[in-house]
Amino acid sequence: MKINSVNTTQLEKRFKVDLIVIDVREPMELRLNHISGTINVPLSELTVKIKPLDPQLGYLMCRSGARNMRAANLVMTSGCHVVNVKGGVSAWNGPVSSIGGY
Fold first, then answer.
1. Domain ranges of the chain
2. Which of 14, 21, 58, 71 is 20 to 30 A from 46 in CA distance terms?
């Protein structure tokens, strides 16, 4: 199964439409920075929480892009179509929110 990917610039252009962007990092990682409008579903909980997600299209991201590829493989086996965001939050040039360090 092929996993499609976009870079963060492409995602930012598409972010203006109604997208599902799932951040698969753990909650404590989101304290450092996160993109407003994303949904946090940690990779450790993804297989339990995947059923309520839209089966059509979702964008997966993490800090650097490695975890979302693992997440994409898990999600696609459940029948959902997802797009990997290359580079993750680290490559994001848009605004991020922070609630403090670890």
1. 4-91
2. 14
